[in-house]
Structures are given as structure tokens and as C-alpha cells.
């Protein structure tokens, strides 16, 4: 073989080797760029502000312990979420909050979560993050049994002789005023109920779930009247606006319970509802599907350790 032929062969072998090397490097690069998959629950916990905290602080209704079944229901939901975040028993602090204190308590860092009849609205989403809903309800009224025939419609509520009570800073207050009804405003719905029992007010308007809680305490005194307000209240778990990781975790655990209930007919949510509010509302009410549930990897069903 002459020199030019050898040179051509050597060049060809070199080109093939270079091409093979580049191809292998490309394959390795593609393998390195493969989708790592969804994050795990533990990874999300490390991203959240509660990572390493010895105590989980949950804002709850200041109605407690005066609202029977509804407070019991929300407490059970709070315990379920806390357990999945790795907190049980003495590791959980409950902070009673009035309606107007909920957003401030999250913004100031007083609490880590709020589970307190917190309606998910666009206006509030400017200040807090929501996971949920964990309950969907409607606005109704609670009246003494002696007035059940007098108070049947929204038009009846416009009677200036009728003293309608509601909590200030609530979506109920806004709805009443939009309907031309001027309510007497107090700090908490429990103040309305105490006032109605004392003859100070004639009607209490709030979420049906909250009213059912008071009905569970005074079943012989009051009655819930369904009103065609047309407003559906989606109650969610409030999370600080700067902690999307914690929001995702709460949404994931609510979604996990929802899927369990849908597939098996039993779940932590259904147990909580049926043993509390289900005695006073629809017994077979299903858990509402939570919004924007993230895809996370849950290694096991045990509470993550801190």
C-alpha cells in the first residue's frame, strides 16, 4: 500500500473514532438531562419555612369551643394535615383568631397555617396562598324556631324591623350588603348567637357549616333556613404567601385524602365529616376535590420526620 492510501485510511479511522466519541457523549448528555421526576414530600418540606420547627402553629376559629360540630370538624382536618407534616399532640399549637385577624396572623408569622372557615377569594389571594377547598358550603341564616315562618326569603331579611347579625370582615357581610341588607356587625358569629339567645338579634347569617355547628349545640332553639343567596363558599387552608412549598404540601395531603375517599369510600376527611358535621348536614357528602394538587413522591404513609 502506498503512502497516500495509508494516510487516507488513517484519516478515515480517526473520523470514525471522533464521530463515535461525540455520539457517546451526546447519549451521556441526554441521560444526564432526563426528567428527574416530581419532587418528594421530604424535598418540599425542606423548602418550606416550617422545616426544623419543633411546633406547628395553626390559626383556628375564635368560636372554639362554642361552635360544636363545625369547630370539631376543622380541628380534625387540622390534625390530619399536621400529622402528615410530622406534627402530633403537643407539637401542635392552636391559636384562636377572629375573622379579621386571619390574614394578619399569617403575614406576621404568628401562625404557619389558618384553618378557620377561610373562604378562598380572589381578593384574599393577593395576600395569602390557599390549599383546598376542604369544604364547600353556602350562605344561609339561623333563626329562632318562633321566627321560622316569618323569615323565609331574602326579601324578609330586608325588613328594617328585623335585626340581622353577622361577623365583620366576612364574605357574609359583603353578600348581605350587596342584597340591600344592613347587618349588625360583631367580632364572631358566636357573639351573634349569644345576642340572639338574649333577644338582641333576630337572625344570624353565615356559612351553613358554621350555623350547623351552633345548631348542634342548640337543636331545640334554632333552625337553619335555606336562602337563595346563590353564593358558594369554598373554604381553604390559608398559608403564608411566601411559602408555595407549604401550600403544595397541604394541597397534596388534601388530594391524597380525596383520592382515597373516591376509590374506597373511606378517608380521614370522610371520617372527620361523618363524626361531626355529617350529623347535622348531608350525611353522605363527599370531599370536594382540592385545586392545583402537585405531583409529589410520597415514600410511605408515615408522617415525615423532622
TrEMBL record:
Record-linked Pfam families: SBP_bac_3
Keywords: Signal, Transport
Signal peptide: 1-25
InterPro entries from the UniProt entry: Bact_solute-bind_prot3, Solute-binding_3/MltF_N
Keyword Ribonucleoprotein applies: no
Domain Solute-binding protein family 3/N-terminal, residue spans: 55-268
Annotated region described as Disordered, given as residue ranges: 283-306
SUPFAM superfamilies xrefs: Periplasmic binding protein-like II (SSF53850)
Family membership: Belongs to the bacterial solute-binding protein 3 family.
Protein's name according to its UniProt entry: Transporter substrate-binding domain-containing protein
Native species: Micromonospora cathayae
Taxonomic lineage: Bacteria, Bacillati, Actinomycetota, Actinomycetes, Micromonosporales
Amino acid at each position: 500500500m502506498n503512502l497516500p492510501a495509508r494516510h487516507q485510511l488513517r484519516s478515515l479511522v480517526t473520523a470514525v473514532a471522533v464521530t463515535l466519541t461525540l455520539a457517546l457523549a451526546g447519549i451521556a448528555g441526554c441521560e444526564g438531562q432526563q426528567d428527574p421526576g416530581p419532587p418528594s414530600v421530604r424535598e418540599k418540606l425542606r423548602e418550606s419555612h416550617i422545616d426544623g420547627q419543633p411546633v406547628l402553629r395553626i390559626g383556628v376559629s375564635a368560636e372554639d369551643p362554642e361552635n360544636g360540630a363545625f369547630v370539631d370538624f376543622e380541628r380534625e382536618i387540622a390534625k390530619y394535615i399536621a400529622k402528615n407534616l410530622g406534627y402530633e399532640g403537643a407539637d401542635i399549637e392552636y391559636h384562636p383568631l377572629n375573622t379579621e385577624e386571619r390574614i394578619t396572623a399569617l403575614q406576621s408569622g404568628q401562625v404557619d397555617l389558618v384553618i378557620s372557615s377561610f373562604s378562598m377569594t380572589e381578593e384574599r389571594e393577593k395576600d395569602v396562598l390557599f390549599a383546598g377547598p376542604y369544604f364547600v358550603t353556602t350562605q344561609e341564616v339561623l333563626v329562632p324556631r318562633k321566627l321560622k315562618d316569618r323569615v323565609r326569603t331574602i326579601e324578609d331579611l330586608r325588613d328594617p324591623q328585623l335585626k340581622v347579625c353577622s361577623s365583620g370582615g366576612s364574605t357574609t357581610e359583603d353578600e348581605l350588603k350587596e342584597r340591600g341588607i344592613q347587618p349588625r356587625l360583631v367580632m364572631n358569629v358566636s357573639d351573634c348567637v349569644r345576642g340572639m339567645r338574649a333577644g338582641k338579634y333576630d337572625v344570624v347569617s353565615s356559612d351553613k357549616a358554621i350555623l350547623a355547628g351552633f345548631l348542634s349545640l342548640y337543636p331545640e332553639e334554632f333552625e337553619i333556613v335555606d336562602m337563595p343567596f346563590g353564593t358558594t363558599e369554598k373554604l381553604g387552608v390559608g398559608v403564608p404567601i411566601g411559602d408555595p412549598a407549604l401550600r403544595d404540601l397541604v394541597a397534596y395531603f388534601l388530594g391524597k385524602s380525596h383520592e382515597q375517599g373516591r376509590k374506597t369510600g373511606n378517608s380521614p376527611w370522610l371520617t372527620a365529616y361523618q363524626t361531626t358535621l355529617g350529623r347535622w348536614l348531608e350525611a353522605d357528602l363527599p370531599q370536594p376535590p382540592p385545586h392545583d394538587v402537585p405531583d409529589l413522591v410520597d415514600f410511605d404513609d408515615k408522617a415525615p420526620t423532622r
